[in-house]
């Protein structure tokens, strides 16, 4: 009897611990967090979904960011969906820099890492601490300037393949000379970047531009689509992000489908890794150095280089997870960038014409298909140095960053510097201004990283910040220089030690494809089609009224006939 009572009270005690902790997190912690005294949009709910929509939905966020700055100042308090999801929303460049630079304090929050690693494993994107450091260290040589330069011919030729494919589709459609054909640019850009990542990433031909029935390609594309871009929303993903084992216990269709894709990926990509290791070993036995230029070869070589201490080496599993990560982080981001640039060119015909004139001026007399590797390198050098192309890409990446926003969490209490006055909200709702140089951010506070917010901030970019004007890059306003960013004062590729590792690679892809497409086709809006934006992990285009069909960006594509 006493044993039974003892057992029962033990159970009760065990249940009490999580309940007490949840109660603390829900009711006590939020009230004690000093950042709640920063002003922000009103909220009086336990579960607050609206704030996330305000700052994450690209149809609202631009105006909302402006409204926040005008109304509440550059450091604002907003709420995530769960009661303990207390967020600092900052459009203060000094504050943002601090958060993005101090990666040992500000990590990616557990739920978001969980979502990513559940899909692609613990690669560079979702790892933290020593694991991340090791992976990034091994990967850096694979993304060096020289390594990227070696990829140029390979990427450039994919541009020609895409152009040829489009020409043949347009021909087959039987459109009269001088007339156009409506193509879903978003889908084609996606195939093209997957193809590039296959060859440049792991020396593997998906042939995705020609056909899309490759087993490995399908596993990746469908996994990302089902698990990310076709998210149904609701509470389940929010809960399973915290409690991932629930998915194992109660799998639904999505979970089962993802597991099936992962099995294919592990089998096929796993085999590629073993083959590559064998080739490298074979070359070594013959006293040679393996010549592979793809990221997988370089990762493997880097792992065995004497520069890397033994304890910083990575495993086969790490390699697979990083390949998955490159597929995840490097394909749709780049293809959406290309898609939005083509869209902007279609809407702004004058920009498109100027760009075409510039690119035609570097077109070689011989057909691009017949060029040698050296000739491609020198052609690419001219393309890459074309100033207007550079401006168009920068401006598009500013206006529609494919990654709309990100998030960090403070893993320690921290004093965060601020460069603009803090507004405080008293109990009676009256807002006062306070000139302080730092604010206290307790452990557990989330920090919203408004990428689009900084890119479109009128306080830095001036009154024309929301418009598309590539010429602005010839003469940037002075305040812009305060914005942190890996790439031209844009937060598009984030900043600091966790910034994008693939920026250079994406530039090679964008420039190669834009050269191939703009010199061979004219783009205009598809008649009767209205394009909308939605943020589904990435900022994607949709046809208004056909949102359910998934991302799409139909444009009218007309072959451009030039006399050479
Ligand atoms: C236009 C194209 C691209 C954009 C806009 C972009 C943007 C970003 C952003 C914003 C981050 C930071 C994410 C965060 O902090 O939450 C990031 C990280 C990353 N990107 Fe990119 N990216 C692009 C292309 C690529 C390419 C081509 C690769 C090639 C493999 C790549 C690989 C990565 C990786 C591995 C990380 C994680 C880095 C780390 O945490 O150490 N990205 N990217
Ligand atoms: C299945 O569960 C996952 C996460 O637990 C969720 O993201 C997804 O939307 C669910 N799928 C369906 C079809 O409800
Ligand atoms: C990286 O190097 C270590 C130490 O030499 C080795 O044990 C490990 O298997 C290597 N990783 C891969 C993926 O080859």
From TrEMBL:
**Family stated for the protein in its record:** Belongs to the cytochrome P450 family.
Note the superkingdom of the native organism: Eukaryota
Q: Which SUPFAM superfamilies match?
A: Cytochrome P450 (SSF48264)
Q: This protein is called what?
A: Cytochrome P450
Species annotation: Phlebiopsis gigantea (strain 11061_1 CR5-6) (White-rot fungus)
Q: Which residues bind heme?
A: 500
Q: Which InterPro entries match?
A: Cyt_P450 (IPR001128), Cyt_P450_CS (IPR017972), Cyt_P450_E_grp-I (IPR002401), Cyt_P450_sf (IPR036396), Cytochrome_P450_monoxygenase (IPR050121)
Q: Which residues form a coiled coil?
A: 266-293
Cofactor(s) of this protein: heme
Give an example GO molecular function.
heme binding
* PANTHER family associated with the record: CYTOCHROME P450, CYTOCHROME P450 12A4, MITOCHONDRIAL-RELATED
Pathway-wise, it operates in: Secondary metabolite biosynthesis
Give the record's keywords alphabetically.
Coiled coil, Heme, Iron, Metal-binding, Monooxygenase, Oxidoreductase
